[in-house]
Design brief:
Layout (H helix, E strand, L loop, with lengths): L1 E2 L3 E6 L2 E6 L10 H15 L7 E6 L3 E3 L4 H4 L4 H19 L5 E5 L2 E3 L1 H7 L3 E5 L3 E3 L13 H9 L1 H10 L3 E2 H7 L4 E3 L2 H16 L3 H14 L4 H15 L3 H11 L10
Parallel strand pairs: 3-4, 4-6, 5-7, 6-8, 7-9, 8-11
Antiparallel strand pairs: 1-2, 2-3, 9-10
Helix pairs in contact: 1-3, 5-6, 9-10
Length: 262
Protein backbone atom coordinates (compact mmCIF):
# COMPACT_ATOMS: atom_id res chain seq x y z
CA UNK A 1 0.00 0.00 0.00
CA UNK A 2 1.17 3.52 -0.85
CA UNK A 3 0.06 6.31 1.46
CA UNK A 4 0.43 10.04 1.07
CA UNK A 5 -1.00 12.61 3.44
CA UNK A 6 -4.47 12.49 1.89
CA UNK A 7 -4.59 9.51 -0.49
CA UNK A 8 -4.21 5.76 -0.12
CA UNK A 9 -3.34 3.46 -3.02
CA UNK A 10 -3.21 -0.32 -3.09
CA UNK A 11 -3.28 -2.97 -5.76
CA UNK A 12 -5.14 -6.27 -5.84
CA UNK A 13 -4.09 -8.26 -8.88
CA UNK A 14 -4.62 -6.04 -11.89
CA UNK A 15 -6.97 -3.71 -9.99
CA UNK A 16 -5.72 -0.43 -8.51
CA UNK A 17 -7.70 1.04 -5.62
CA UNK A 18 -7.53 4.77 -4.86
CA UNK A 19 -8.96 5.80 -1.49
CA UNK A 20 -9.54 9.44 -0.62
CA UNK A 21 -8.36 9.64 2.98
CA UNK A 22 -9.50 12.88 4.64
CA UNK A 23 -12.50 11.51 6.53
CA UNK A 24 -12.33 14.25 9.15
CA UNK A 25 -13.17 16.79 6.43
CA UNK A 26 -15.56 14.54 4.49
CA UNK A 27 -12.77 13.98 1.94
CA UNK A 28 -12.96 17.51 0.60
CA UNK A 29 -10.40 18.59 -1.96
CA UNK A 30 -7.79 21.06 -0.79
CA UNK A 31 -4.93 21.96 -3.12
CA UNK A 32 -2.54 19.42 -1.59
CA UNK A 33 -5.04 16.59 -2.05
CA UNK A 34 -5.52 17.55 -5.69
CA UNK A 35 -1.75 17.54 -6.24
CA UNK A 36 -1.42 14.11 -4.67
CA UNK A 37 -4.33 12.69 -6.66
CA UNK A 38 -2.99 14.19 -9.88
CA UNK A 39 0.45 12.68 -9.36
CA UNK A 40 -1.05 9.28 -8.57
CA UNK A 41 -3.28 9.32 -11.64
CA UNK A 42 -0.30 10.29 -13.81
CA UNK A 43 1.62 7.31 -12.45
CA UNK A 44 -1.29 4.91 -13.01
CA UNK A 45 -1.60 6.07 -16.62
CA UNK A 46 1.93 4.77 -17.22
CA UNK A 47 1.23 1.36 -15.69
CA UNK A 48 -1.20 -0.11 -18.20
CA UNK A 49 0.39 -3.58 -18.07
CA UNK A 50 0.04 -4.20 -14.34
CA UNK A 51 -2.93 -1.93 -13.53
CA UNK A 52 -5.81 -2.69 -15.87
CA UNK A 53 -8.79 -1.27 -14.01
CA UNK A 54 -9.07 1.39 -11.28
CA UNK A 55 -11.55 1.78 -8.42
CA UNK A 56 -11.90 5.13 -6.64
CA UNK A 57 -13.53 5.16 -3.21
CA UNK A 58 -13.08 7.00 0.10
CA UNK A 59 -12.62 6.55 3.84
CA UNK A 60 -15.33 7.45 6.35
CA UNK A 61 -18.96 8.38 5.72
CA UNK A 62 -18.44 10.56 2.64
CA UNK A 63 -17.11 9.94 -0.84
CA UNK A 64 -16.33 13.65 -1.06
CA UNK A 65 -18.22 16.79 -0.13
CA UNK A 66 -16.35 18.71 -2.84
CA UNK A 67 -13.99 21.64 -2.47
CA UNK A 68 -12.49 22.35 0.93
CA UNK A 69 -14.45 25.48 1.79
CA UNK A 70 -12.32 26.16 4.86
CA UNK A 71 -9.30 26.46 2.61
CA UNK A 72 -11.30 28.31 -0.05
CA UNK A 73 -12.19 31.10 2.41
CA UNK A 74 -8.47 31.82 2.88
CA UNK A 75 -7.69 32.13 -0.86
CA UNK A 76 -7.49 35.24 -2.96
CA UNK A 77 -9.04 35.33 -6.44
CA UNK A 78 -5.86 34.18 -8.16
CA UNK A 79 -5.55 31.21 -5.82
CA UNK A 80 -9.20 30.31 -6.38
CA UNK A 81 -8.53 30.25 -10.12
CA UNK A 82 -5.49 28.05 -9.49
CA UNK A 83 -7.54 25.56 -7.44
CA UNK A 84 -10.38 25.43 -9.95
CA UNK A 85 -7.94 24.84 -12.81
CA UNK A 86 -6.22 22.12 -10.79
CA UNK A 87 -9.39 20.20 -9.93
CA UNK A 88 -10.56 20.44 -13.54
CA UNK A 89 -7.22 19.15 -14.83
CA UNK A 90 -7.02 16.30 -12.32
CA UNK A 91 -10.55 15.08 -13.02
CA UNK A 92 -9.89 15.29 -16.76
CA UNK A 93 -6.81 13.14 -16.17
CA UNK A 94 -9.01 10.61 -14.35
CA UNK A 95 -11.43 10.60 -17.28
CA UNK A 96 -8.59 10.15 -19.78
CA UNK A 97 -6.94 7.23 -18.02
CA UNK A 98 -6.54 4.38 -20.51
CA UNK A 99 -7.84 2.00 -17.84
CA UNK A 100 -11.57 1.82 -17.06
CA UNK A 101 -12.32 3.67 -13.80
CA UNK A 102 -15.08 2.72 -11.37
CA UNK A 103 -16.35 5.11 -8.70
CA UNK A 104 -17.41 3.30 -5.51
CA UNK A 105 -19.46 5.98 -3.78
CA UNK A 106 -19.50 5.13 -0.09
CA UNK A 107 -21.43 8.20 1.11
CA UNK A 108 -22.08 11.87 0.40
CA UNK A 109 -20.88 13.05 -3.03
CA UNK A 110 -21.56 16.74 -3.50
CA UNK A 111 -20.01 19.36 -5.78
CA UNK A 112 -16.49 18.28 -6.70
CA UNK A 113 -17.08 14.88 -5.16
CA UNK A 114 -19.94 14.26 -7.55
CA UNK A 115 -17.85 15.67 -10.40
CA UNK A 116 -15.10 13.15 -9.65
CA UNK A 117 -17.65 10.35 -9.88
CA UNK A 118 -18.90 11.75 -13.19
CA UNK A 119 -15.34 11.64 -14.54
CA UNK A 120 -15.28 7.88 -13.97
CA UNK A 121 -16.55 5.32 -16.48
CA UNK A 122 -18.85 3.55 -14.01
CA UNK A 123 -20.51 4.53 -10.76
CA UNK A 124 -21.78 2.34 -7.92
CA UNK A 125 -23.21 3.77 -4.71
CA UNK A 126 -24.32 2.69 -1.29
CA UNK A 127 -28.07 3.05 -0.77
CA UNK A 128 -29.23 6.38 0.62
CA UNK A 129 -26.06 8.29 -0.23
CA UNK A 130 -26.81 11.92 -1.02
CA UNK A 131 -25.26 13.45 -4.12
CA UNK A 132 -25.59 16.39 -6.46
CA UNK A 133 -24.07 19.49 -8.00
CA UNK A 134 -24.88 22.05 -5.32
CA UNK A 135 -22.54 24.85 -6.40
CA UNK A 136 -25.10 27.52 -7.36
CA UNK A 137 -26.30 27.53 -3.75
CA UNK A 138 -22.78 28.71 -2.86
CA UNK A 139 -22.68 31.46 -5.47
CA UNK A 140 -20.55 29.54 -7.98
CA UNK A 141 -21.08 26.92 -10.69
CA UNK A 142 -19.69 23.42 -11.14
CA UNK A 143 -16.13 24.03 -12.31
CA UNK A 144 -14.59 20.56 -12.54
CA UNK A 145 -16.55 19.35 -15.55
CA UNK A 146 -19.93 18.83 -13.93
CA UNK A 147 -21.94 20.99 -16.31
CA UNK A 148 -20.51 19.10 -19.27
CA UNK A 149 -20.29 15.50 -18.07
CA UNK A 150 -23.70 15.43 -16.39
CA UNK A 151 -25.29 16.90 -19.52
CA UNK A 152 -23.69 14.26 -21.72
CA UNK A 153 -24.82 11.55 -19.34
CA UNK A 154 -28.48 12.46 -18.78
CA UNK A 155 -29.25 15.20 -21.32
CA UNK A 156 -29.47 19.00 -21.01
CA UNK A 157 -32.99 19.32 -19.56
CA UNK A 158 -32.40 16.99 -16.61
CA UNK A 159 -28.88 18.34 -16.05
CA UNK A 160 -30.18 21.92 -15.95
CA UNK A 161 -32.86 20.89 -13.47
CA UNK A 162 -30.31 19.41 -11.09
CA UNK A 163 -27.71 22.17 -11.50
CA UNK A 164 -30.06 25.20 -11.43
CA UNK A 165 -31.86 23.96 -8.31
CA UNK A 166 -28.69 22.72 -6.53
CA UNK A 167 -30.86 19.72 -5.74
CA UNK A 168 -29.52 16.96 -3.54
CA UNK A 169 -30.69 13.56 -4.70
CA UNK A 170 -30.39 10.07 -3.25
CA UNK A 171 -28.49 7.21 -4.79
CA UNK A 172 -31.81 5.65 -5.72
CA UNK A 173 -32.86 8.79 -7.59
CA UNK A 174 -29.46 9.01 -9.28
CA UNK A 175 -29.94 5.45 -10.50
CA UNK A 176 -33.33 6.38 -11.95
CA UNK A 177 -31.71 9.35 -13.72
CA UNK A 178 -29.22 6.95 -15.31
CA UNK A 179 -26.24 8.37 -13.41
CA UNK A 180 -25.38 5.20 -11.50
CA UNK A 181 -24.72 1.68 -12.71
CA UNK A 182 -25.91 0.19 -9.47
CA UNK A 183 -26.97 0.77 -5.84
CA UNK A 184 -26.11 -1.64 -3.03
CA UNK A 185 -27.51 -2.00 0.48
CA UNK A 186 -24.24 -1.31 2.28
CA UNK A 187 -20.62 -0.41 1.58
CA UNK A 188 -19.43 -4.00 1.55
CA UNK A 189 -21.98 -4.95 -1.09
CA UNK A 190 -21.23 -1.78 -3.06
CA UNK A 191 -17.49 -2.50 -3.11
CA UNK A 192 -18.22 -6.12 -4.02
CA UNK A 193 -20.21 -4.94 -7.04
CA UNK A 194 -17.39 -2.62 -8.09
CA UNK A 195 -14.79 -5.37 -7.73
CA UNK A 196 -16.99 -7.87 -9.58
CA UNK A 197 -17.16 -5.53 -12.56
CA UNK A 198 -13.42 -4.82 -12.37
CA UNK A 199 -12.61 -8.53 -12.25
CA UNK A 200 -14.83 -9.14 -15.27
CA UNK A 201 -13.04 -6.41 -17.21
CA UNK A 202 -9.49 -7.54 -16.39
CA UNK A 203 -10.17 -11.00 -17.83
CA UNK A 204 -10.08 -9.44 -21.29
CA UNK A 205 -7.23 -8.19 -23.47
CA UNK A 206 -6.17 -4.91 -21.82
CA UNK A 207 -5.04 -3.14 -24.97
CA UNK A 208 -8.36 -3.97 -26.61
CA UNK A 209 -10.24 -2.63 -23.58
CA UNK A 210 -8.21 0.59 -23.65
CA UNK A 211 -8.87 1.14 -27.34
CA UNK A 212 -12.56 0.37 -26.89
CA UNK A 213 -12.72 2.96 -24.11
CA UNK A 214 -10.93 5.45 -26.33
CA UNK A 215 -13.30 4.85 -29.22
CA UNK A 216 -16.42 5.22 -27.07
CA UNK A 217 -15.17 8.26 -25.16
CA UNK A 218 -13.90 10.11 -28.23
CA UNK A 219 -16.77 9.08 -30.45
CA UNK A 220 -19.65 9.89 -28.12
CA UNK A 221 -19.57 13.64 -28.76
CA UNK A 222 -19.01 13.68 -32.52
CA UNK A 223 -21.12 12.81 -35.57
CA UNK A 224 -21.49 9.15 -36.56
CA UNK A 225 -19.04 9.19 -39.46
CA UNK A 226 -16.33 10.82 -37.35
CA UNK A 227 -17.05 8.26 -34.64
CA UNK A 228 -16.67 5.44 -37.14
CA UNK A 229 -13.33 6.89 -38.23
CA UNK A 230 -12.20 6.99 -34.59
CA UNK A 231 -13.25 3.36 -34.18
CA UNK A 232 -11.30 2.37 -37.29
CA UNK A 233 -8.13 4.01 -35.98
CA UNK A 234 -8.59 2.33 -32.59
CA UNK A 235 -8.98 -1.05 -34.29
CA UNK A 236 -5.80 -0.47 -36.32
CA UNK A 237 -3.85 -0.12 -33.07
CA UNK A 238 -4.95 -3.61 -32.00
CA UNK A 239 -4.14 -5.52 -35.20
CA UNK A 240 -0.35 -5.90 -34.62
CA UNK A 241 -0.64 -6.81 -30.91
CA UNK A 242 0.52 -10.11 -29.47
CA UNK A 243 -2.71 -10.38 -27.46
CA UNK A 244 -4.79 -10.50 -30.65
CA UNK A 245 -2.73 -13.41 -31.94
CA UNK A 246 -2.85 -15.09 -28.52
CA UNK A 247 -6.68 -14.93 -28.54
CA UNK A 248 -6.82 -16.68 -31.92
CA UNK A 249 -4.28 -19.30 -30.83
CA UNK A 250 -6.15 -19.97 -27.58
CA UNK A 251 -9.40 -20.34 -29.49
CA UNK A 252 -7.90 -22.94 -31.81
CA UNK A 253 -6.35 -24.79 -28.85
CA UNK A 254 -9.60 -24.64 -26.86
CA UNK A 255 -8.02 -22.90 -23.87
CA UNK A 256 -8.33 -19.60 -22.06
CA UNK A 257 -6.08 -16.89 -23.53
CA UNK A 258 -3.24 -15.43 -21.48
CA UNK A 259 -3.17 -11.70 -22.16
CA UNK A 260 0.05 -9.84 -21.43
CA UNK A 261 -0.96 -6.36 -22.58
CA UNK A 262 1.42 -6.54 -25.54
Amino acid sequence: MVKTENILFEQKGYIGIITLNRPESMNTFNYETLKELGELVENIAQRTKDIRTVIITAAGRAFSAGADLKERRTLNEQEVRRNVAKIRDVFTAVERLPQPVIAAINGYAFGGGFELALACDFRFSVAGAGMGLTEVSLGIIPGAGGTQRLTRLIGPAKAKELVFTARKITAEQAYEYGILNGVAEDCDAMLAAAFALAEEIVQNAPLAVYQAKYAISKGSSVDLQTGLDIETKAYEVIIPTKDRVEALTAFSEKRKPIFLGE
